[in-house]
UniProtKB/TrEMBL annotation:
Pathway: Ketone degradation; acetoin degradation. This is Acetoin utilization protein AcuC. GO terms for biological process: acetoin catabolic process; epigenetic regulation of gene expression. Keywords: Acetoin catabolism. SUPFAM superfamilies: Arginase/deacetylase. Belongs to the histone deacetylase family. Residues 31-327 form the Histone deacetylase domain. Gene3D superfamilies: Histone deacetylase domain.
Length: 403
């Protein structure tokens, strides 16, 4: 536990869902979403001492029932997932099942429902008051829609957790999605629900799947301003990424007066990830997690559920980012200059034949220019941020130029 900060943010009662059974969510050996990333993340967190922190409770997942899945998905879709999972020679491309992105595999329903159960377990810990914060790093399946699988996502666990919170009496939930890809499924599920604010900060749909999520997508007729999209130019690095986050996210979550934050921390925006064209670092991802933690403390009395998401560099990026995420959620951030534990590095060498990073950080420059310094109309990043602010800020009584 010497790797964890001994000072700084206060330790927070935290539930971390960590269940080896979640690795059954497996599209096959050649698919980008390898379950090995979950195993490597859990192993690194254990070596760092995160699981042994006195404020951390480890929780198991469970297979969500059809009734629980039906709070977000249609009964017909759930039945289709069951059929394809029972016979992987079948496919249902109209529902996104058995496609290149979402290949059929035996037990697909149970494996996908277990990811949903993990986020429900996280929500239940918050509702029961046994934890103030919770993490399901195996979740974040944000492309799954009510009637269709998409983008490696079968059931939308984050949406299920949000509905669970609302059904328990929570008035408002803010969903923050920093995956490189637009959180289209979660947005669409709550498109016309004024109780849920969805903010997605992602690479522009002009250059990346799923091709959606632009500034003028602001929610349904009964929920104008509750869908927020920051459509980042390809190539955006740490400075622009953090500038965009701080120019949009805190102001809107505060104005919305959320009771709980649910966040999705896909780390495929990293410069070494092959499935996006963004250029962020592990250090910036950690900085974003710290910012969400501070926001939860200011607005939601600390209540926060964090999930994983995308991320396909399974050795040097995903375990470090989500290791940092868990430590931040628990209130004991891991310093960036911390050495990656040697037993973990040796395990990676022996089992993956790869050289793992030496440090938990990348010595990246995460300085970002505050929006208050000024707006540059010749900068593509500033233009997209301003488009979002113009579309949404006035609906909350905020000035898109100055707030």
């Amino acid at each position: 536990m010497s790797s964890l900060a001994s000072s700084g943010p206060t330790a927070v009662p935290t539930s971390i869902v960590c269940d080896a059974a979640m690795s059954a969510y497996n599209f096959g050996p050649n698919h980008p979403m390898s379950p090995k990333r979950l195993e490597l993340t859990a192993r690194l967190a254990r070596e760092l001492g995160i699981f042994e922190l006195p404020q951390v409770t480890l929780a198991e997942s469970f297979v969500a029932s059809d009734d629980e899945l039906a709070t977000v998905h249609s009964r017909e879709y759930i039945a289709a997932v069951r059929r394809v999972g029972a016979d992987p020679t079948l496919s249902d491309p109209d529902r996104g099942l058995g496609t290149d992105d979402d290949p059929a595999f035996a037990g697909m329903h149970e494996a996908s429902a277990r990811l949903g159960g993990a986020s429900l377990a996280a929500a239940d810990a918050i509702i029961a008051g046994t934890a103030l914060r919770a993490v399901n790093f195996g979740g974040g399946m944000h492309h799954a829609a009510r009637e269709k699988a998409s983008g490696f996502c079968i059931y939308n666990d984050a949406a299920m957790a949000i509905v669970r919170l609302l059904d328990s009496g929570v008035s408002k939930v803010a969903y923050i999605d920093i995956d490189a890809h637009h959180g289209d499924g979660t947005q669409d599920i709550f498109w016309n629900d004024p109780r849920v604010l969805t903010i997605s900060m992602h690479e522009s749909g002009l250059t990346l799947f799923p091709g959606t999520g632009f500034a003028n997508d602001i929610g349904g007729p009964d929920a104008q301003g509750t869908a927020v999209n920051v459509s980042l130019p390809a190539g955006t690095g740490d400075a622009g990424w953090l500038r965009a986050f701080h120019a949009v996210v805190p102001q809107l979550v505060e104005a919305f007066e959320a009771d709980v934050i649910v966040s999705q921390h896909g780390c495929d925006s990293h410069r070494d990830d092959d499935l996006s064209h963004l250029n962020t670092s592990v250090d910036a991802q950690r900085e974003a997690a710290l910012s969400v933690a501070a926001l939860a403390d200011r607005v939601c009395s600390g209540r926060w559920i964090a999930t994983g998401g995308g991320g396909y560099n399974i050795v040097s990026v995903v375990p470090r980012v989500w290791g940092h995420l868990m430590a931040v959620v628990a209130g004991r951030p891991v310093p960036l200059r911390t050495a990656v534990p040697e037993p973990w590095r040796e395990y990676v060498r022996e089992h993956y034949g790869k050289v793992a990073p030496l440090l938990m950080g990348e010595d990246a420059d995460t300085w970002w220019r505050s929006w208050e310094v000024g707006y540059n109309p010749s900068d593509a990043l500033d233009r997209t941020v301003m488009a979002t602010r113009k579309a949404v800020f006035p609906l909350y009584g905020l000035d898109p130029w100055f707030d």
